[in-house]
Amino acid sequence: MKRWVSLLMVIGLFAIILSACGQKGTQSSDQKSTSEQSLTISVAASLTDVTKALEKAFHEKYPHIDVSFNYGGSGALREQIDKGAPVDVFMSANTKDVDMLKEKGKVQHTYDYAHNKLVLIHRKGSDIQSIDQLGNNDQLAIGEVKSVPAGKYAKTYLEDQNKWSSIEDRIVYAKDVREVLNYVNKGNAKLGFVYQTDLYVGTTPHTGVEKVSDAPLKSPIVYRMGTVTDTEAANAWYDFMKSNTAQRILKDYHFEK
Hints:
By secondary structure, the protein is α/β, with parallel strands linked by helices. The protein has 9 helices and 12 strands.
């Protein structure tokens, strides 16, 4: 009888050890799963600086999510997503590119997270103050009209001002607003159209270019984002962008709500 009791005790102890090991293994697996969450965000080039600040604040709340950014013109990014690029969130510099993907069922939740303004810039210290002052060999830099929202806005503005036809043959096209800044900063273009936020490097005024004038449009420039996947990480970023913290950071970087 005592032998049976001892055997049962040994079996019970063995079962407890196995159970504990199983729980430990499950916890390690869960922790590994949590630590390996990743988030890929395709972002308009005009958001390059502010997204670094947004990422830092996001990590304070979600330290287990690894964020990576893919920058470019909104139209080019939309085409990548349309072709199946592995993206979780799309942050566009307009509404059109997000809406085009949503119509195809490739974007789920959307949110208008910021507004911006179009401005005309020249190299700091330049005497050229308007498009009318450009010489026959002088160039005006704008983003590619088909893929860069700022380029489309620039063309719309020039058409509204009845200047497009007279300046079209002197336009140099850039892949994004960062390249427009580079063209003007290096003197390859006398003037360029960028966003108001591009007048700053982070929160510090740009040292190489400066604003000539505002370029008001009939319709506001709206920045729209959309979730491409329905992962926890994508939804966490979506919720974060609606927070007061994110809106404060955007304001610090001269975006408007």
